Amino acid sequence: MYFETENRWYSIEIAQDLFDLIVVRRWGGRHNRIHGELRQAVLSQHEATSLAEKYCMQRMRRGYALTTT
Dihedral through CA 48, CA 1, CA 65, CA 61, nearest 10? Predict the structure, then answer.
């Protein structure tokens, strides 16, 4: 899922690394090179989905819009 405001972007992805299921969050500025990433290991697909939904709701409350890019 990809969110953005006029100046910032944020993405949430559920992925599989070598050993664990992880929720990957990435963020940054649209007009600069300052970016960040956080990977969080989870135990199940249900937990990953719940966590991703929680982060999506936080972004929406903070004024980010869900985009399709």
Answer: 10
